[in-house]
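Fold it.
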Amino acid sequence: MKVYVQTDIEGIAGFCFRENRANPSPENLAHRRRMYRLLTNEVNAAVHAAFDSGADEVIVNDNHGSGYNILFEELDPRCRIIHGRNGSGPHWLPLLDESFDAMVLIGMHAMGATPCAIIPHSKWIVNDGALYLSEASMAAAIAGDHGVPAVMLSGDDKINAEVSAKIPGIESVVVKQALSPYMACSVIPARACEMIYEGVKRGLRRRKEIAPYVIPGPVRLNLLDSPDHCPPLSECGETVTAATIDAAFMKYEKAMSWNTFGQEQMDGFIFPS
């Protein structure tokens, strides 16, 4: 069994505030490192559960911001991790293809403008408003184009409600109740890891019962957001049309000036940036 673990950070237990990478203060650096450790522990719980469920290959995608958020030297050495400059590789979900048996979503956040969700952002508008996707449901839809079911998701109650409505039967692990964009009632991180471990095991056990999330094509796609993710949200680019959600997403992403998907040569990038 082959498992793809897609990760973000806003949905982990204990996270309430957007990362400020421009602030070099000791307090901010300690806070960021603390969040990275909490994320690492939740990802590790998912990885352990996958191997304990019979997986022989697990790929982790460090997909938040810098792409260097997970303390990968602390992960189960049986997995592999995709890390580094996000938006410079071959795809938003590198290496994902039909060879995978399941996708697991860890640390997910709600789409932009979701009321009382922790740091909600990125609201994908599909077919002129017929459907809206978060980053979590977008990942599930791209996996669905490859016939891969998303079997488990962790995050706050708002993102779990959205994805559970779209994917009947997905294992939903709520690690915190969002009270405002900057406040939550969270389970203790050690308990969150236990919940994630059990949720991943249940999801993988039921993977053949959970249908891949497929959005029929052709697809018209745009992104609603703002520079600081605060409402009002507006379209970030020109609407694109493609045969599948995967193709539409990558067509849109490649048009964004800050992405360099498919990069083959150095361009002077220096971490952190």
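The chain has a mean pLDDT of 97.
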